[in-house]
Write a structure and sequence with these properties.
Layout: E1 2-3, H1 7-20, E2 26-31, H2 35-50, E3 54-55, E4 64-69, H3 74-94, E5 97-102, H4 108-117, E6 122-124, H5 132-142, E7 146-148, E8 155-156, E9 169-173, E10 175-176, H6 187-191, E11 195-196, H7 199-211, E12 216-220, H8 229-233, H9 243-251, E13 258-262, H10 271-279, E14 286-288, H11 296-302, H12 308-321, E15 326-333, H13 340-353, E16 357-362, H14 370-373, H15 380-402, E17 409-417, E18 425-428, E19 434-437, E20 447-455, E21 459-464
Parallel strand pairs: 1-8, 2-3, 2-4, 4-5, 5-6, 6-7, 9-12, 12-13, 14-15, 15-16, 19-21
Antiparallel strand pairs: 10-11, 17-18, 17-20, 18-19, 20-21
Helix pairs in contact: 1-5, 9-10, 12-13, 13-15
The structure holds 5'-deoxyadenosine (5AD) and iron/sulfur cluster (SF4).
Iron/sulfur cluster is lined by residues 178, 180-182, 185, 187-188, 222-223, 265.
Length: 466
């Protein structure tokens, strides 16, 4: 896979830095959507800090306002248009520069709408993120609006500066794009085809993170367990050419205590990945396994390429082979044609698997996807009723499931102080449950054994084992 030369962009960073000299400029960034977008934003922040911008949480004091957008569901779209209304004043009254990037910008109808009805200075897409320094420079120098969107993909960007949000946990993107074309999903259209970073580059990044004191790594990709599949077809010659091998290598990096990953696809969950999860002591035993629907009929129309039974068999296999395995999932309710019986199948899978966490979504029509063209759309009212029923089943199961933790000792990476109670420390179990406990500041960043003493729906309370 071709790597993009970013030398020119590093030069643009220097040029903007010169323009900004002595101005003490601030930037505000709003990130919508998934962790991949958050990781992209960390790269935008990295470039901006090199240009001498400093971050602010107050849009009103920023000389540069950036929106990194998501288009997976309609509500993120609505949020952007609301925000663009708000920033009009900032641009007109204070001359703030407005930059809009990310997935939504890969959709022609959205870019058209912004061009016609909203104010902005730079529009950039998912394949031009690394060109942000050049686009920003041109917008500042020429005082004209820049739109920099391309459809070609298949390139890998290495070496961009990065400013991470957290100093204990870090995300590392291992692949980008998706080849699956699930019929509800816009991602393959806006993120392009699957392409994987070379293992050596990923391992270098993780080693660097370990040196800087990071303890937990989350590997990111739209479909992590097809890591390197496309590159292998094209004659890749790195020996680390599967996701299982990558996990095994990262597991050996000293300093890293916990490895998580999102998201795998059930259809690509090969035995070597199951074995790697089982055998790599640092790899979390929480498997995020997107179900989407429990009905074989709906799964077929969704183009998911597995049946209800295959999904349940996979879960069963992992339960047998991986001690202490737990599961989380994504579920969409109200996909076109979903009958009451289909929905019951989803509830049935939820009961059978016993998920730790469920991310629930109401089906949202996305322009350009096959799902949007289907005639048998489900009325909003039914979608909402089903969503509420699923939510109730899930919430009832949470407190029941939480009971299993009471009395157990969990090894936890201490992340910092609890947001809700600054006297308590917080961390997560291997299964990603929030735990709060009393302890001293110097434990932050360390692994500690915590005995769980009570459960409170969305968090557990514990005490340090002496
Ligand atoms: N409507 C609702 N949910 C969606 N997702 C993806 N596309 C849609 C859509 N059109 C959900 C899927 C996916 C998660 C990231 O977002 O459950 O796994
Ligand atoms: Fe979307 Fe399906 Fe690809 Fe996930 S696997 S990004 S749901 S098309």
């Amino acid at each position: 896979m071709k790597k993009v030369d970013i030398t020119e962009q590093l030069e643009y960073i220097e040029k903007v830095k010169e323009i900004n000299d002595g101005k003490n400029l601030k930037y505000y960034i709003l990130t919508m959507g998934c962790q991949l977008n958050e990781n992209d934003s960390e790269k935008i922040c990295g470039m901006l800090e090199e240009m001498n911008y400093s971050k602010t949480e107050e849009m009103k004091e920023a000389g540069l306002i950036i929106f990194n957008t998501c288009c997976v569901r309609e509500n993120a779209e609505e949020r952007l248009f609301g925000k663009l209304g708000e920033v009009k004043k900032q641009r007109e009254e204070r001359g703030a520069i407005i930059a809009i990037g990310g997935c939504m910008m890969q959709e022609d109808h959205i870019v058209e709408k912004i061009k016609q009805s909203y104010q902005y200075d730079v529009i950039f897409g998912t394949h031009t993120l690394h060109k942000f320094p050049e686009d920003l420079y041109n917008a500042i120098i020429n005082e004209k609006r820049i739109t920099d969107i391309i459809d070609i993909e298949g390139e890998i960007i290495e070496g961009l500066p990065i400013k991470r949000d957290n100093n204990i946990k870090a995300s590392v993107t291992i692949m980008n794009g998706c080849n699956n074309f699930c019929s509800y999903c816009i991602v393959p259209y806006v993120r392009g085809r699957e392409r994987s970073r070379q293992a050596e580059d990923i391992l270098d990044e993780v080693r660097q993170l370990a040196k800087q004191g990071y303890k937990e790594i989350t590997l990111l990709g739209q479909n992590v367990n097809s890591y390197m599949v496309e590159e292998n077809k094209k004659g890749n010659n790195s020996p680390i050419n599967t996701f299982a091998k990558l996990l095994t290598e990262i597991n050996q990096i000293s300093g890293i205590e916990k490895i998580r990953f999102i998201s795998p696809h059930p259809k690509d969950f090969t035995d070597d990945v199951i074995e790697a999860i089982r055998d790599c002591e640092k790899v979390s035993k929480l498997v995020h396994l997107p179900l989407q629907s429990g009905s074989t009929n709906v799964l077929k129309v969704m183009n998911r390429k597995y049946t209800k039974e295959q999904y349940l068999n996979l879960v069963e296999k992992m339960k047998q082979q991986i001690p202490n395995v737990t599961f989380s999932t994504d579920i969409i309710v109200g996909f076109p044609g979903e009958t009451e019986e289909d929905f019951e199948d989803t509830l049935d899978v939820v009961r059978k698997v016993g998920f730790e966490q469920i991310f629930m979504f109401i089906y949202s029509r996305r322009v350009g996807t096959p799902g949007d063209k289907m005639e048998n759309q489900i009325p909003e009212e039914i979608k909402h009723q089903r969503f509420d029923r699923l939510k109730k089943l899930y919430e009832d199961s949470v407190s029941e499931n939480n009971k299993k933790y009471i009395g157990r000792t969990e090894e936890i990476l201490v992340e910092g102080y609890s947001k809700n109670n600054e006297n308590l420390l917080t961390g997560r179990t291997d299964s990603n449950k929030v735990v709060v406990f009393e302890g001293k500041k110097d434990l932050i960043g360390k692994m500690v054994n915590i005995k769980i003493i009570s459960e409170h729906m969305w968090y557990l309370k514990g005490e340090i084992c002496k």
